[in-house]
Specification:
WKF; 0% strand; 75% helix; 9 helices
């Protein structure tokens, strides 16, 4: 059967050459095929049925194979595009990652409630120590837990925290804006930290 197809391909090519160039004849037939052939990119017709349909339109087996390859490529491109779009939608639907603040507060909660399961994390501790005077980042209910956490500090972390608290206290004492609410809250927190660590 393959030999017959090859032979017939050679005979039909001669006909195409007589009527005009192959590139001129093929696009006209392709345009026809895209609209008429049921084996296009959207249908689920088998390749054999599609090739039978193409041959019924008067195309040579070689032209049918070329057209089938093109249709197959178009289907693959469409599948890839659909996969990309679905992947983009999945990314949009994912919940946002928790911020450093949220992670640090969860760390503090787990320390206070599930002390046996709790694991030390240097980055969380560092974040808490850097932002412990800011009432917006660490609310009062968490600050009370943080004071208990700080009481257990040892070594360099404890020394550094005391030094920073003393430096901040001197800085705020010498400033003129001691009536601001934020400054008053920060100074109260600094005093609490110094009392616990001293």
């Amino acid at each position: 059967m393959a030999k017959d197809k090859r032979k017939s391909t050679g005979k039909n090519e001669g006909k195409i050459k007589q009527t005009g160039s192959k590139s001129e004849a093929a696009p006209v037939k392709k345009r026809k095929l895209d609209s008429e052939v049921p084996g296009g990119s959207d249908s689920a017709v088998s390749q054999e049925e599609a090739s039978d349909n193409l041959e019924a339109l008067g195309l040579t087996p070689e032209e049918c194979r070329v057209l089938e390859r093109k249709l197959k490529k178009e289907r693959k491109k469409e599948e890839k595009r659909l996969k990309r779009e679905s992947a983009i939608q999945e990314k949009k639907e994912e919940p946002p990652k928790p911020t450093g603040c949220e992670l640090a507060l969860q760390y503090l909660k787990s320390w206070s409630k599930k002390h046996e399961e709790w694991k030390f994390q240097k980055t969380r501790q560092t974040w808490l120590l850097l932002h412990m005077y800011d009432p917006e980042k660490i609310p009062d209910k968490y600050f009370k837990i943080l004071l208990d956490y700080i009481a257990g500090l040892q070594g360099r972390a404890r020394d550094t925290t005391v030094q920073k608290a003393e430096a901040l206290m001197k800085q705020y004492d010498s400033s003129d804006d001691t009536k601001e609410e934020d400054l008053v809250a920060k100074m109260a927190r600094i005093r609490d930290v110094l009392q616990i660590l001293s």
